[in-house]
Amino acid sequence: MRCQDFQIHLLDHPQDSPDPVLAVAMTEHHSGCPECKEFKRLWQGLDDLPQPEPPAGMSSRFRERLTLELAARQLPKSITSSWWLPLSVAAALLLSVGVILGYSLRSGNDRSDPALASLRNGTVADRIEAIALVNNRTSGQGDIVSALIERISHDPSLDVRLSAVEALYLFGADPGLSHRIEVALPGQTRPEVQLALIDLLGALRQKRAAEALRRLMDEDQLPPEARQRAEQRLSQMNL
Amino acid sequence: MEMPLEVPDDTEVMRRVRAGHGDLVGLLFERHHRPVYGFFINLTHQLSLSEDLTQEVFLRVLRYATSFKEGSAFRPWLYQIARNVLTDHQNRLQPMALLNEADHVPDPRPGAQHEAESMADRERLRQSLAKLPLEKRELLLLSKDPDLSSQDLAGMYGCTPSTLKVRVHRALSELRIHFFQRQEVTP
After folding, report:
1. Which of A16, A43, A80 lies closest to B21 in CB terms?
2. Which pTM was predicted?
3. What are the two backbone dihedrals, phi and then psi, of residue B55, each rounded to the nearest 5 degrees?
4. Cβ of A11 under 8 Å from any chain B Cβ?
5. What ipTM score was computed for the predicted complex, to two decimals?
């Protein structure tokens, strides 16, 4: 048996029925081949990689996110899984309390809107969920854009900032969007967010957005990577 | 006389999810989140990130339920989503590498702390895996999932089982280079 044959057969799936003759040949080869011993040691070693237990509370945190997602989608709840219902209600109550508290403590133009206020509250996952939720609203688009721009400018989490940039794609028809992106861009310290905002400007395919990209490229302080991306997006816009 | 409780299999649960019972994704989460979490832990070595990615996988199960083909196996479809979630995450964070900020990943197996040699092997294996490109790491880890058949895996990668085996062999050969090179330079 050649090493190549041994190594390929070693990878046979455990569910595949082994050929007894082949098994004997493999045993013989393995006993005299240091290279294939190494190969087998590694293959078996992959079975021994740590399989840590999921952290405590992971299931309940997922149930909260699922409840929020279902609420946003307005899907009908199953009546067949009665064990699930009390947990969903509890999560919804918790969410409501959080939103009301956030509403009562908030100042500024989001005072009238608990959903927008929730963009600032809670964990990173909570804020990302809140971004997904406000995206599903059809009214108050100006306030939503303002809230998302505010998150992009001030949220400490990179994931939240990137989620807010993604969410802005839904508001591409907003005539002031390109200007607001242009204003928000210089304040960004993370290249990922800069590039995401430049991509968004390019995707708008508006004259205003093209002008904003041109002005951006005139900035002396623009990092080379961002300048290159702006050039690419501008050339793709054909405006 | 009490009737035995009906325990729907994954395919049946997915049929109900597609029919509008989205909360049943919670049942799928309870059944499958451990291997998915383990998959992400062994790829990223970041505890918090692995939880976030795992949750995202199951939210996508809900969002993309209509793309699940009736009668097909659930686990390969789930892992396909997991691969997409990881790729999306990596694309968003480029040029940051996934393994830049590895956490200490505890090994819960009894006695594992005392098996110094195998622990050293596992750590070296972990470091060697980290040197492989993401797609090869994924392939090796998925090849070791006992719930994925060779046909399942081949279907996920869009090739025949034979071709897949050759790909696994290549990945393992590359892993071997990293693993034993490291050992040779260690006094």
Report:
1. A80
2. 0.56
3. -65, -40
4. yes
5. 0.80
